[in-house]
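Q: Here's a chain of 200 amino acids. Please give me its 3D structure as tokens.
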Amino acid sequence: MLVGYVESWDQLAGKGVIAELDLSGRLNEDAPRFTVGLEDLDLAGHSELRRGRYVRFCLESGDRTAARRVIIDRGAERKRAAQLSAAAEDQVDGNDGRQYGTVREVVEGRFGFILLDETGESVFFHMSNAEGGVVKQGDTVSFIMREVTQGKHAGKRTCLRVRRCAARNSTSSAGAAAGNGQKSRAAQDFDDDDEFELLE
């Protein structure tokens, strides 16, 4: 069976979308998406599908676009709860709105991109906003996300006060995309641009 994350679920319509997770259990931006309907659910008891739940599912040979025999992946949900608990212990500033993710890419040691745990989106950060030293590809980090208000990148989001989560980094390296020596398109868009340096 495949492992997925419920990206959307319309309770009234009884349909939604499941994104397949990678081998390390992370959601990537380009992950395959599959439709799911009430007739595809194989849920026992009072379990219900909703956005944010982790599931296991099958694909039929004739239809590779729809998830079938969907069940809740309680093991993945327990693991996720443990990760969130560990993340809460890492948080020393109290409830300051920190989010969590994995460093997907670092470009020339100056800036990079973080894959958000919750959504799989990729968000920019400048290395000058890394607390406690340099972060590297594969690190699990916490950060505060803000919208840029000035310059040519106004309206885009950036990660500030980026901090490594030491308790979780021993298992996080598989979550980042493998580097191939080439800059991603997103990295090229931000190249030679220091507008994000020491934002906040």
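Q: Can you summarize the key feature?
A: Residues 115 and 122 are 5 Å apart (CA to CA).
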